[in-house]
Amino acid sequence: MSPAKSAKASPLDLLVDRYLNYLLVEKGLAQKTLAAYGADLARHLDHLKAQGIEAPEGVDTAVLLRYLIALRDQGLGPRSRARHMVALRGFYRFLVREKVLAADPSRSIDLPKTGLKLPDVLSRDEVRRLLDLEEKPSPVALRNAAMVELLYAAGLRVSELVSLKVQDVNLEAGFVRVLGKGDKQRVVPIGNHARRRIDEYLKTGRPALLKTVASAYLFVARAGRPLTRQGFWKILRQRAAAAGVLTPLSPHSLRHSFASHLLEGGADLRAVQVMLGHVDIATTQIYTHVARDRLKKIHRKYHPRG
Fold first, then answer.
1. Is residue 289 annotated as part of the catalytic site, yes or no?
2. Does some domain include residue 1?
3. Dist. CA 90–CA 95, nearest whole Å
4. Does the annotation count 97 as an active-site position?
5. Domain for residue 195, yes or no?
6. From the candidates 44, 143, 255, 261, which is the catalytic residue?
């Protein structure tokens, strides 16, 4: 799984192998994610060996800071350095958990400022216009309305949305079961608006689209096939134009809006992490910056001394 080792592996090499195996077996990370972590950690080990460090006990906060500086000097941008730091944090936390180290040397190091700009988050009014768009009644219109409503209600990835099966939705209990990255399952609650839209689609729209064809998929196109991601985004762009939504849309626009609106409303960060299916809460923390920026604008606009 990890890069090829020399004839005699160092203690750090063996520990990286243990960590990657832990991510595969216990955390169920996808192969692409494992490969990225392995490459980042291999680069880190090469740096340590160049410094004469062969064992984890030789790594402290100063060593990690020098490594980040070396990455910067090698031309890596803030986003790439932040990705490396995420891999290192996970590794050294694992060593503490396995009692290899008494303390985590990465604990006091902040992620590099990435300047990462998320795709634009829709305002609440834009979301309302997008979801409440009046269309001429038809089976396709019922399907499209239910898909957009559910995407925002549960913060799904588009790939997760189009691969949903009928059995994955429990309207009575009000939740949807999602198979996310790394084949990890999560259960996300959905609100009454989404439940009503899906119920109407299941009773009227889906049978008309299927006719005599059987399909396990929740959202179907012709001949019972699932709608493709590209097909859905074409629908969403057309819907946004009809609703007068001017904010540029991306494949994750409604997912980002879901997370940001929850946090703005006071939702717990870890609860949002679970609903989004993020393995690392650091990924979810990106949304707190979006929420804070929005709250600052609201404060400046409406506070008497803003």
1. no
2. no
3. 9
4. no
5. yes
6. 255
Answer whether residue 107 is part of any domain: no
CATH number at residue 84: 1.10.150
CB 220 within 8 A of CB 164: no
- All residue ranges of the chain with pLDDT < 50 are 1-7
- Hunting for tokens 């195996």 — which residue is that? 21
Task: Please count the structural domains in the chain.
Answer: 2
- Residue of 43, 181, 186, 229 marked catalytic: 181
Contacts for 146 with CB less than 8 Å, ≥ 6 apart: 194, 197, 198, 200, 201, 205, 219
Hey, which bits of 62-129 come out as E strands? none
**Residue 250 located in a structural domain:** yes
Whether 261 is catalytic is no
Decide if 181 is catalytic: yes
Token pair in block for residue 196: 């009503």
Q: Find how far residue 129's CA is from the centre of its chain.
A: 25
Eight-class DSSP state of 7:
S
Residue 252 annotated to the active site: yes
Of 229, 100, 118, nearest to 163 by C-alpha is: 229
Strand (E) or helix (H) holding 176: strand 175-179
The C-alpha angle 7, 9, 13, rounded to 5 degrees, equals: 140
CA gap 2, 29 in Å, rounded: 14
What was the pLDDT predicted at 287? 75
Q: What is the domain-level CATH number for residue 199?
A: 1.10.443.10
Residues of the chain above pLDDT 90, percent: 55
Which strands, in side-by-side order, build the sheet including 169-170? Answer: 169-170, 175-179, 185-189
Same domain for 146 and 229, yes or no, is yes
**Per-position DSSP letters for 128-170, written without gaps between them:** HHHHS------HHHHHHHHHHHHHHHHT--HHHHHT-BGGGEE
Distance (Å, rounded) from C-alpha 100 to C-alpha 103? 9
Q: Which of 62, 97, 132 is the last residue of a domain?
A: 97
Question: Does residue 154 sit in the same domain as residue 93?
Answer: no
Whether residues 198 and 83 fall in one domain = no
